């Protein structure tokens, strides 16, 4: 998976109106993570791969942009941390539950992420 393709996928995520529908943004994030499970698995299970593939800065920037959409650019630390946990947890779920049907995993993961965001 080329990093440019992931850039495009993240760009599409950024078009989702998180203020009106944070669940839609989280669903889109899960969909992207599932579609690119091989890359997600590498990123989550072997962080050194980020450096090797020159993805580290991109992944951090993608997450910052998605988190800003979820909680706002000026959110307090607690809200930012909840968003980091929610987004990171979504990616982890695509790796930790490889045998769970995508649709079932998506529902459970998004519900958990929303609960985390709303603390």
What's this, in brief?
This protein has 119 residues and is mostly helical. The chain is built from 7 helices and no strands. The chain is globular.
**Number of domain modules:** 1
Q: Level of helix content?
A: over 70%
Shape: globular
Structural class: mainly alpha
Question: Can you write the helix and strand succession as a string?
Answer: HHHHHHH
**How much β-strand is present in the residues?**
under 5%
Mean pLDDT: 80
Model regions low in confidence, pLDDT < 50 over at least 5 residues: none
**How many helical stretches?**
7
> How far apart are the first and last residues' alpha carbons, in Å?
34 Å
Major sheet attributes: none
What is the CA-based Rg, rounded?
Answer: 13 Å
DSSP strand tally:
0
Description:
76% of the residues lie in helices and 0% in strands. The model has no long low-confidence stretch (mean pLDDT 80). The chain is an all-alpha fold and 119 residues long. The protein has helices at 3-13, 22-35, 37-45, 48-52, 56-71, 77-96, 102-117. It is built from 7 helices and no strands. The protein has one domain. The relative contact order is 0.15.
Topology at a glance:
Elements: H1 3-13, H2 22-35, H3 37-45, H4 48-52, H5 56-71, H6 77-96, H7 102-117
Helix pairs in contact: 1-2, 2-3, 2-6, 2-7, 3-6, 5-6, 6-7
Spell out the key features of this protein.
mainly alpha, 7 helices, 119 residues
């Amino acid at each position: 998976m080329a990093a440019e393709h992931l850039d495009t996928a993240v760009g599409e995520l950024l078009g989702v109106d998180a203020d009106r529908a944070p669940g839609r943004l989280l669903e889109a994030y899960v969909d992207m993570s599932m579609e690119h499970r091989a890359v997600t698995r590498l990123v989550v299970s072997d962080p050194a791969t980020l450096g090797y593939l020159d993805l580290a800065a991109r992944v951090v920037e993608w997450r910052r942009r998605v988190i800003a959409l979820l909680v706002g650019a000026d959110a307090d630390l607690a809200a930012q941390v909840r968003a980091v946990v929610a987004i990171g947890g979504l990616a982890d779920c695509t790796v930790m539950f490889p045998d769970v049907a995508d649709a079932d995993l998506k529902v459970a993961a998004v519900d958990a992420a929303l609960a985390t965001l709303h603390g």
